[in-house]
Amino acid sequence: MVALIEQGRVISAYVGDINTQEIYGYRPGSRSVHRISEYETSEQLAHIAKPISEQYALLRDPPETYSHPSRALLRSFKSYEVEGGSIGIWLARLWKREVGAALLLPTVETPWDMAPIVGISKMLGYRFYRPSATGWRYYEPAIGGRISNRDHDLLVIHERDVEALLLPQVPPGSSG
Asked: How far is CA 137 from CA 39, 59, 64, 69, 142, in A?
């Protein structure tokens, strides 16, 4: 995984999946993310609309380890899958639309992990949310040059699915 950050914004990012021999990413100035396969073919990734109730949520840990708001949110989905491994390879399942959302537990975030996944996710139209006392609120993950502690669950979901979960809308360009 690698990302190029300019003035606090990811302008290029790539994630390689050694299992599928695919690379996901975009170059500076690009407006789209591509998946490049081992056969040197390139496919532009795009959102495929599907009701939340027909989609799976992707978890890294068993559901009982998540906060109450996260467990309640899982009821909106058809079901969930628990899978570990590299964060980049894990989120590639979301980018390919194999699952409808991803939930992460609180953790220590590193710039070398967060910058590529935040860059690619945002370029594809995904948004980040955190639970709050009044529901869920938009969250802007740290992508700077330092390690940070995230003390809350993190939901990654496409902007077109936000309304189905009654999450707050965030205007483009807003930092939340």
From this structure: 41, 19, 21, 12, 16
3-state class (DSSP) for residue 156: strand
Predicted model pTM: 0.91
Domain boundaries, the chain: 47-165
* CATH fold of the domain at 47-165: D-Maltodextrin-Binding Protein; domain 2 (3.40.190)
- pLDDT 10s digit of each residue in the chain, 176 long? 999 999 889 999 999 998 889 999 999 999 999 999 977 788 999 888 899 999 999 999 999 999 999 999 999 999 999 999 899 999 999 999 999 999 999 999 999 999 999 999 999 999 999 999 888 999 999 887 789 999 999 999 999 999 888 787 765 555 44
